[in-house]
C-alpha cells in the first residue's frame, strides 16, 4: 500500500545509502517519516499521531516545542548561531553542569560520540598510556575504540588497545588490571547500559571500579550520555562514587546537538591552552550558543521536584508493565522492554500509538502526566499481548 512515508523512503534511496543516514532509526521495510512534534506527541507523514517515548533516543527531556526552550533558542538564533569566538552562553551551561554535578571543569562538543572520544584522548594524554578497558554490551557511540573491534572499517590495530570485559565481572576486571597495570589509561563505564539491557550495575561493582582505578592511577570515565537525566548530578551521584571524567550529551542540549566532558583540572590539563596544553581540539560548532542556551533552559526546567516526578512516573510505568507479565528493565524515567523480536515489537507498538527506540528503549518526557503514562502503559500492554 502506498504511503507518504513510503514515497519519501523511495526518494531517500536515491540520495542516501538504503535511504538511511542514521542506523539507529532504521526499521524495515522503512521507518515512518516524522513531520512535527508537540509536547509528547509526534505526527508522521501519513497523519498518524503517536506518543513519543523515543524522544530522540532520550534527549528530548521536555518533549517537542517546549515554549521556554523555543524562546531561549530563538533568542540565540536571532543573535547569531555560531561565532569564531567564545560566548557567555558556554560559561553559563558549564556553571550549571558544575553546580549539578560538583565536577569543576567542562568542555563542549557536538555529540555523545565526540564526548567519549574526547574523554579517551584526555585520559591517554593525562596518563601517557594507551589501553582502554570497557564493558561488553555497553554502547558509547561510534568511535573506533568503543565499537565492536571486528566492525568493518575499524583498523585491526585498535583491538590491541581495547580490553572488552564482561559487565559486572569483578574477577575479569581485577585480572585485566593486574596483567596490564602499567598500560591502562582509562576504564570506561556506563552505570546502566542501555544496549546491554538497561540494568544498573551493582554498587559493589561500581565501587570496585572506582577503587581499582584509583589504586592503579587509571582514569575512570563514567559515560552519562543517557543516564544524566536520572539524578541532578546524573546516575553517578546515586552510587556515591566520583568520576575522573564524565561524558554527557543528549538532554543538556535542550533538543539541539551537544556533548560535553567534565573533569578536574588535573585530568583536563592537556586541553588547557594557558598551561601549554598539548592537545588541540576544535569543533566548528562546539559550544554554539543555540545549543548552550536551549540546554541551560532544559536543565533549569529539570530541578529536583520535576526530576523526581518524572522518575516516579517511570517507576509506576514499569510496575504496570511487569504486573501484566512484560519483561522490562530500567530506572526512573528510562525503561527498556525486553522482547523476542524487536522489529516486530517496534511496529506493534507504533501501530498502537507508541514510538519507542528500535531496541525497545522508552524515555518519558516532562509534558507527560499520570494519565498519559497510564495510556501509554495500556497501549504497550495491549500491543504486546496481541498475537
Ligand atoms: C551511553 C552513550 N554514550 C554515547 C552515546 C553517543 O551519543 P551520540 O549519539 O550523541 O553520539 C550514546 C548514544 O546513545 C549513549 O547512549
Commentary on this structure:
It is a single chain. With 387 residues, the protein is of the alpha/beta class. The protein has helices at residues 4-13, 55-58, 67-79, 88-101, 112-127, 170-180, 203-215, 236-239, 289-300, 304-323, 342-351, 370-385, and strands spanning 34-38, 41-44, 49-52, 105-109, 131-135, 162-165, 184-189, 219-223, 245-249, 259-263, 328-331, 334-337, 354-355, 361-363. The protein has a seven-stranded mixed beta sheet with strand order 4-10-9-8-7-5-6, with helices on both faces. A four-stranded mixed beta sheet has the order 1-2-3-13. A three-stranded antiparallel beta sheet has the order 11-12-14. It is globular, with a radius of gyration of 21 Å. The relative contact order is 0.16. The model has no long low-confidence stretch (mean pLDDT 97). Pyridoxal-5'-phosphate binds next to α5.
Which secondary structure elements does this structure contain, and how are they paired or packed?
Blueprint: H1 4-13, E1 34-38, E2 41-44, E3 49-52, H2 55-58, H3 67-79, H4 88-101, E4 105-109, H5 112-127, E5 131-135, E6 162-165, H6 170-180, E7 184-189, H7 203-215, E8 219-223, H8 236-239, E9 245-249, E10 259-263, H9 289-300, H10 304-323, E11 328-331, E12 334-337, H11 342-351, E13 354-355, E14 361-363, H12 370-385
Parallel strand pairs: 3-13, 5-6, 5-7, 7-8, 8-9
Antiparallel strand pairs: 1-2, 2-3, 4-10, 9-10, 11-12, 12-14
Helix pairs in contact: 3-9, 4-9, 6-7, 10-12, 11-12
Amino acid at each position: 500500500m502506498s504511503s507518504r512515508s513510503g514515497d519519501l523512503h523511495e526518494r531517500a534511496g536515491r540520495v542516501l545509502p538504503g535511504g538511511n543516514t542514521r542506523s539507529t532509526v532504521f526499521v524495515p521495510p522503512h521507518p515512518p517519516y516524522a513531520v512535527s512534534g508537540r509536547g509528547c506527541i509526534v505526527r508522521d507523514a501519513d497523519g498518524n499521531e503517536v506518543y513519543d517515548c523515543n524522544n530522540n533516543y532520550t534527549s528530548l527531556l521536555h518533549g517537542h516545542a517546549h515554549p521556554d526552550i523555543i524562546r531561549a533558542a530563538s533568542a540565540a538564533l536571532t543573535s547569531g548561531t555560531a561565532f569564531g569566538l567564545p560566548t557567555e552562553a558556554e560559561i553559563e551551561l558549564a556553571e550549571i553542569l558544575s553546580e549539578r554535578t560538583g565536577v569543576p571543569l567542562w568542555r563542549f562538543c557536538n555529540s555523545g560520540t565526540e564526548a567519549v572520544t574526547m574523554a579517551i584522548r584526555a585520559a591517554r594524554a593525562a596518563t601517557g598510556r594507551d589501553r582502554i578497558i570497557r564493558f561488553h554490551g555497553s554502547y558509547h557511540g561510534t568511535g573506533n575504540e568503543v565499537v565492536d573491534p571486528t566492525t568493518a572499517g575499524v583498523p585491526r590495530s585498535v583491538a590491541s588497545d581495547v580490553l572488552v570485559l564482561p559487565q559486572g565481572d569483578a574477577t575479569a576486571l581485577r585480572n585485566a588490571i593486574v596483567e596490564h597495570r602499567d598500560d591502562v589509561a582509562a576504564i570506561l563505564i556506563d552505570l546502566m547500559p542501555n544496549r546491554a539491557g538497561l540494568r544498573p550495575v551493582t554498587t559493589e561493582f561500581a565501587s570496585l571500579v572506582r577503587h581499582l582505578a584509583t589504586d592503579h592511577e587509571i582514569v575512570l570515565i563514567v559515560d552519562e550520555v543517557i543516564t544524566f537525566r536520572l539524578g541532578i548530578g546524573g546516575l553517578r551521584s546515586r552510587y556515591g562514587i566520583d568520576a575522573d571524567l564524565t561524558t554527557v550529551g543528549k538532554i543538556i542540549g535542550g533538543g539541539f546537538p551537544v556533548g560535553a566532558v567534565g573533569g578536574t583540572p588535573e585530568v583536563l590539563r592537556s586541553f588547557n591552552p594557558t598551561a601549554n596544553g598539548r592537545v588541540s581540539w576544535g569543533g566548528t560548532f562546539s559550544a554554539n550558543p543555540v545549543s548552550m542556551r536551549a540546554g541551560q533552559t532544559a536543565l533549569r526546567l529539570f530541578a529536583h521536584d520535576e526530576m523526581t516526578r518524572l522518575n516516579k512516573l517511570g517507576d509506576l510505568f514499569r510496575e504496570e508493565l511487569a504486573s501484566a507479565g512484560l519483561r522490562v528493565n530500567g530506572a526512573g524515567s528510562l525503561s527498556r522492554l525486553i522482547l523476542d523480536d524487536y522489529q516486530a515489537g517496534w511496529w506493534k507498538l507504533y501501530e498502537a500509538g507508541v514510538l519507542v527506540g528500535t531496541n525497545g528503549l522508552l524515555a518519558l518526557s516532562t509534558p507527560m502526566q499520570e494519565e498519559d503514562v497510564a495510556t501509554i502503559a495500556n497501549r504497550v500492554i495491549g500491543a504486546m499481548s496481541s498475537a
